[in-house]
Each structure stands twice: as structure tokens, then as C-alpha cells.
Design goal:
The complex is a heterodimer of chains A (172) and B (246).
Chain A: H1 2-24, H2 32-49, H3 58-67, H4 71-84, H5 93-101, H6 106-119, H7 129-138, H8 142-155, H9 157-171
Helix pairs in contact in A: 1-2, 2-3, 2-4, 3-4, 4-6, 5-6, 6-8, 7-8
Chain B: H1 2-11, H2 15-30, H3 37-59, H4 68-77, H5 83-96, H6 105-119, H7 122-133, H8 138-147, H9 164-180, H10 191-211, H11 222-238
Helix pairs in contact in B: 2-3, 2-4, 3-4, 3-5, 5-6, 6-9, 7-9, 8-10, 8-11, 9-11, 10-11
Classes of the chains: A mainly alpha (172), B mainly alpha (246).
Chain lengths: 172, 246
């Protein structure tokens, strides 16, 4: 039992160290990118099974990963969001929207859009339908086009929101 | 107050209506068989994200939401070439129709068609269904396969799963059943549909002279036979079936 507790403590310390290195974006003479990728995988595995208890909130960890400069770290975090579709993580919406407006690769932008749809199944879209349709017209690569098509459906819900609020106004 | 004004805009067919039309166009284009599988799947996911609006449209038919083009895109995806897309489209249909049991893609198409007739007025049905029927390129379907008789390989269809005749019958059925629900009797067939059928008849009548053989037969192209059947079905629907007597 004590050994298990010690192992858990060790894992938590490793996680914390990984997290701090990613936050600080430490650059090592050799293998920085590989280290960040492995550290991200480790952190995401930890969020997925929640075996070692909370080091920090998953929302905060994902937010830090999304702010990282390393593309692979961001892509891994986005992949995780798209796969697990975590609920109640509305605070990372801001990070995703920031990522979308940043000068990242088209692949990152396409996955970000997908993630925005994944986290916001029951929440209001931050992007208007007009914006999405304009971006769709401007998109030149297929993954980005398809991501905008998907997000258009999500943004179109603003019509429903409008109707709901109107019913509310009429009844109140 | 602001939202109320916005809703008025929506009802009078301004801002949101235009955006929704544009979105519907995107859906309609992306769900076509000529698009890649991933694009068609994206259209389906988009529809899935949009589904609360579709659900609301069926729950409150009196409001007449401008969502019929999006529903027509779903109808297209229910007969998609890809099994996964058809299955997901059936699930989505069950969700928006508020049905507990997921039907087969063909059953879902019939359920969706039935609900369209019950929910939308004839004018909007006509406005959306007729362009789908008339999007077929008759000269291309009738002439190009006959022009290239020396092809070594059979032409591969974009969608091998879809039964085009069944689909057309379904669309024509939606039109005629919706017309029957109209108060004040029957309505004259849409001029575009009549013109489409007339053009088809003219091209069919030109075929035997050119090839001195019956255009419908086992040794002829499937597209040609299919187009001839389609035109005859439309003629029957519009009441101009006498035109096909060659």
C-alpha cells in the first residue's frame, strides 16, 4: 500500500515537472521537441484515466498545452479534445478561439475548429454563422474547408437561440 | 428589444434567412455524390450540429423555418454511397424526428419524406424539390455514353448504392402528396418540371434516328435507360405522358 502511494506521488511529481517544462518552454540542447511530445502524451494520458488524482485541473492543463508554441503539443491536445469531447470545459474556448485567429498552420486551424465543436455541444458558439461562411469561402485546403462546414452547422444554432430568446421575451 | 428586432428580421426573411440559405447551399453542395467521402461526412456532422434547429422546425410546423434545403441534404445523405454515412444519417433522422428506434436508411428516407409533407407548405416543397429533380444533365446522360461506344471499361458510377429511380419516385411522391394537401384542389405542374420533361422527350426522340436501334436494351448504357425512365416518370407526374409516344 505504501509503495503504491509512493508511486502515485512520484507520478504526480513527474507530471508537475512536465507541466512546468511545457509552460516554461524550456529549450534543451538536444531533443526538446521529442521531450515535449512525450511529456504531452503523459499528461493527456493522466487526464484521460485520472488515475493519479489531481495535479492541476484538466481544464488548466489543456489550456497550457494549447498555449504552447510547439505545434505537435497543440495537435496532441486538440486530438485529445476531439476524441474525448470533454464536457464542462468552456474556459478553454477562449484558448481555442485565440489559436484559430493565430497564424498557425492550416492543419492546426482545422483541428481547432473541430475541437470548438467538440467542447461546445450544448453551449453557444463564439463564432457567428456569417464569419464561418466567410472563412469557408476563403479556405483553400480541404481539411480546413471541411472543418468550417462542420462549424457552420454549430454556428447556425444562433437562429435557434434567437427564436428561444424571442419566445422568452414573449412569454415573460 | 434588440433580439426581438433580430427575430423580426429573421421572420421577414432578412439577415438570418440569407445566411441560412447560404449555409443550406453549402450543405447541398457538400452532400452531393461527386464530393469526396470526407466532405460528405463533414456535411453530415454539420447537419448533426444544426439538428436542434431541425428538431424545432418539425416540432413547430406552424413557424415554417427555412430549413427545408438542409433537410433535403439529409435526404441525399440517407442514400449515400458510404455505409457509415448512411448509418449516421439514419441516426440523425431518428433524432430530429424524435423517434426511439433507428430505421434503415431507406425507412428513414420514407419517414423523413412523410414528415416533410406534414410539416412544410407546398410552395416551399416545390421550391426545394424541383431543383433537385431537374439537376440531372439530360443531354450528357443521353448522348455521351452512346458517343463513346469503344470504351474498354465500364463507366464507374459516383454512387453505386443509390437507386436513382426510387429516389425520383420519392421526390415526386413528396410533390404529389403535398399538392393533395393543398386547399382548393389541384395545382398546375411547375413549368420548370414540364420544360425539363419536354427537353428530355425531344432528346429521346432524337436518339433512334441517330443510332437506328432501340435506345432501351441490355446492350445499352445504364445511364441512358435510367434517364428515359426518369423522364417518363416525370411526364406521368405532370400529366404529359402522351408526349413520350414516339
Amino acid at each position: 500500500m505504501r509503495k503504491e502511494v509512493k508511486a502515485n506521488e512520484l507520478m504526480k511529481n513527474v507530471m508537475q515537472a512536465c507541466l512546468e517544462d511545457i509552460r516554461g518552454e524550456k529549450v534543451f540542447p538536444v531533443g526538446s521537441d521529442l521531450y515535449f511530445e512525450r511529456a504531452t502524451t503523459l499528461l493527456l494520458d493522466m487526464i484521460a484515466d485520472w488515475r493519479y488524482g489531481p495535479v492541476e485541473s484538466p481544464e488548466k492543463i489543456l489550456s497550457d498545452l494549447l498555449r504552447c508554441k510547439n505545434n505537435e503539443v497543440i495537435l496532441k491536445a486538440l486530438d485529445f479534445i476531439n476524441e474525448f469531447k470533454p464536457e464542462g470545459m468552456s474556459s478553454i474556448r477562449g484558448d481555442l478561439e485565440l489559436l484559430l485567429s493565430s497564424n498557425r498552420s492550416k492543419r492546426v486551424r482545422a483541428w481547432t475548429l473541430q475541437s470548438l465543436s467538440s467542447i461546445g455541444a450544448n453551449e453557444k458558439s463564439g463564432l457567428s454563422l456569417k464569419y464561418c461562411l466567410d472563412e469557408l469561402e476563403m479556405a483553400t485546403v480541404l481539411p480546413l474547408k471541411e472543418a468550417w462546414i462542420i462549424h457552420c452547422g454549430y454556428a447556425s444554432r444562433e437562429v435557434l437561440d434567437l427564436c428561444m430568446s424571442h419566445s422568452y421575451i414573449r412569454t415573460s | 428589444m434588440y433580439e426581438s428586432l433580430l427575430y423580426q428580421d429573421f421572420l421577414t426573411g432578412s439577415m438570418d434567412d440569407k445566411l441560412l440559405s447560404k449555409y443550406s447551399e453549402v450543405l447541398s453542395t457538400s452532400s452531393q455524390s461527386r464530393q469526396s467521402e470526407s466532405t460528405r461526412l463533414a456535411a453530415l456532422h454539420s447537419l448533426s450540429n444544426f439538428s436542434p434547429v431541425l428538431q424545432l422546425a418539425f416540432q413547430a410546423p406552424s413557424k415554417q423555418y427555412p430549413v427545408l434545403p438542409a433537410i433535403c441534404a439529409l435526404l441525399t445523405l440517407l442514400s449515400d454511397d458510404d455505409h457509415e454515412i448512411r448509418t449516421l444519417a439514419s441516426k440523425l433522422t431518428a433524432t430530429i424526428l424524435n423517434k426511439q428506434m433507428i430505421s434503415t436508411p431507406m425507412g428513414s428516407e420514407e419517414n423523413l419524406a412523410k414528415t416533410i409533407i406534414e410539416t412544410f407548405d407546398y410552395d416551399s416543397i416545390e421550391q426545394n424539390i424541383i431543383p433537385i429533380i431537374c439537376q440531372a444533365n439530360i443531354p450528357e446522360a443521353l448522348t455521351s455514353p452512346l458517343d463513346s461506344r469503344d470504351n474498354l471499361f465500364a463507366k464507374e458510377r459516383e454512387n453505386v448504392w443509390r437507386d436513382e429511380i426510387y429516389e425520383l419516385e420519392l421526390y415526386l411522391d413528396i410533390l404529389s402528396q403535398s399538392c393533395r394537401r393543398l386547399q382548393g384542389g389541384e395545382k398546375l405542374p411547375h413549368s420548370r418540371l414540364v420544360q425539363f420533361a419536354r427537353d428530355g422527350v425531344n432528346l429521346i426522340q432524337a436518339l433512334p434516328e441517330k443510332y437506328k436501334k432501340s435506345p432501351v436494351g441490355w446492350d445499352w448504357d445504364n445511364d441512358v435507360c435510367e434517364m428515359i425512365m426518369k423522364i417518363s416518370l416525370i411526364l406521368e407526374h405532370t400529366g404529359y405522358s402522351g408526349l413520350l409516344v414516339c
